[in-house]
């Protein structure tokens, strides 16, 4: 990360919340198999969706701001920066899965080329090793596609009406696709297997939050009057965002695999998270200025924590059990959560940081003429 980058406390708070939710959910799902953290652990998978919304906004803002700037936008620079940001950590963890059998346990690995090309989420078998990389695959596909689409749109006149029509149609397509797949799932004997393989892990079913983030970035860069009206009401946006997400969470906890929540729940979360992002960047809003202790470091290490925490927690839980401490023992919970943070910090320091320094030296921005573009807020 560029030392010159502007860190927004509200966005750090949302990142920290996202990674915490995912870690707690994976602890419940793969370690304790019990309601260890109550409804929070049950619905913690939504942390991935919050990451999607943040990525859509931040990456979309980088692209649209660069395209409007005097320096212009460089597709080559953008891809170089994203790959230097995401690939080093990913390849280190992927190597652990392939070279250390205990790291993956009994779970089967997909062919290496699927992980390398980020298509492992296509019809992903539940229970596969490194299964949580499905979300990374969707984000990488998004990183590759969005700037090319934006440049193509600019080539054909950069019509905002066309852009908003495309976003609206994409939302509708996602709703219709999930509805059709749910109907097909309803006739299957193994409904949950079908749900995860063809709906939950599917790129075409899970882009709602990414798309919502892009819509926010489009508003910020091309509709300053509307953006100003929203950000002047940051605290109201936060209240509305909390209300919408609370309702969506309630329905997901109550009936996660039902028709209504499968079809409309993801757009509802996209709306709720989008409102929270507006509140997180709005001048004068409580969420923007609130400095939650530990949120900054957690946000900074969140990518590394996400990659490592699940397999390490599973391994460590076995060792703790051999020492007489079960998965629900407070000492085990504290030790494994601390391990998740510590291992993420270590990966960040040893792998991510050196490559980020290389990135700032050789590819300091997304601009075609970098000296003319100021760093975007992170």
List the defining traits of the structure above.
single chain; 378 residues
Which helices and strands appear, and what pairs or packs with what?
Layout (H helix, E strand, L loop, with lengths): L8 H24 L5 H6 L2 H23 L6 H25 L1 H4 L7 H5 L17 H22 L4 H26 L5 H10 L7 H15 L1 H8 L2 H22 L3 H23 L4 H4 L5 H28 L7 H33 L16
**What is Rg?**
20 Å
Query: What is the number of helices?
Result: 16
Strand content: under 5%
Order of helices and strands: HHHHHHHHHHHHHHHH
Structural class: mainly alpha
Poorly predicted sequence stretches spanning 5 or more consecutive residues: none
Number of domains: 1
Mean pLDDT: 93
Q: How would you characterize the largest beta sheet? A: none
In short:
The chain has helices at residues 9-32, 38-43, 46-68, 75-99, 101-104, 112-116, 134-155, 160-185, 191-200, 208-222, 224-231, 234-255, 259-281, 286-289, 295-322, 330-362.
Task: Describe the protein's architecture and organization.
With 378 residues, the chain is mainly alpha-helical. It has one domain. Helices cover 74% and strands 0% of the residues. It is built from 16 helices and no strands. Helix 8 runs antiparallel to helix 9. The radius of gyration is 20 Å and the shape is globular. It starts with 8 loop residues before the first helix and ends in a 16-residue tail after the last helix.
């Amino acid at each position: 990360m560029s030392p010159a980058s502007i860190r927004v406390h509200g966005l750090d708070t949302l990142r920290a919340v996202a990674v915490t939710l995912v870690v707690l959910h994976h602890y419940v799902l793969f370690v304790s198999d019990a309601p260890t953290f109550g409804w929070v652990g049950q619905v913690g998978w939504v942390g991935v969706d919050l990451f999607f919304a943040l990525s859509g906004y931040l990456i979309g803002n980088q692209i649209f701001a660069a395209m409007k700037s005097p320096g212009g936008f460089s597709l080559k620079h953008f891809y170089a920066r994203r790959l230097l940001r995401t690939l080093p950590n990913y390849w280190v963890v992927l190597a652990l899965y392939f070279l250390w059998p205990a790291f993956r346990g009994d779970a089967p690995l997909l062919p290496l080329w699927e992980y390398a090309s980020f298509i492992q989420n296509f019809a992903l078998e539940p229970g596969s090793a490194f299964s949580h990389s499905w979300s990374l695959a969707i984000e990488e596909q998004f990183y590759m596609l969005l700037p090319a689409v934006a440049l193509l749109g600019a080539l054909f006149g950069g019509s905002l009406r066309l852009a908003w029509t495309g976003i609206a149609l994409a939302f509708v397509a996602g709703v219709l696709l999930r509805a059709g797949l749910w109907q097909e799932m309803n006739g299957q004997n193994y409904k949950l297997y079908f749900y995860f393989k063809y709906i939950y892990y599917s790129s075409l079913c899970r882009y709602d939050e990414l798309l919502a983030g892009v819509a926010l970035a489009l508003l910020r860069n091309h509709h300053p009057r509307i953006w100003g009206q929203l950000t002047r009401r940051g605290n109201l946006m936060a209240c509305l965002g909390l209300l919408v997400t609370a309702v969506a969470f309630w329905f997901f906890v109550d009936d996660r695999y039902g028709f209504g929540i499968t079809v409309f729940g993801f757009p509802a979360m996209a709306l709720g998270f989008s409102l929270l992002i507006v509140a997180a960047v709005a001048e004068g809003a409580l969420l923007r200025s609130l400095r939650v202790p530990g949120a900054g470091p957690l946000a900074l290490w969140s990518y590394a924590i996400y990659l490592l925490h699940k397999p390490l927690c599973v391994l460590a839980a076995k060792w703790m059990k051999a020492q007489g401490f079960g998965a629900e023992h407070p000492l085990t919970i504290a030790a494994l959560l601390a391990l998740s943070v510590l291992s993420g910090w270590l990966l960040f320091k040893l792998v991510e940081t050196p490559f980020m320094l290389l990135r700032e030296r050789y590819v300091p921005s997304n601009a075609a003429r970098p000296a003319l573009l100021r760093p975007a807020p992170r």
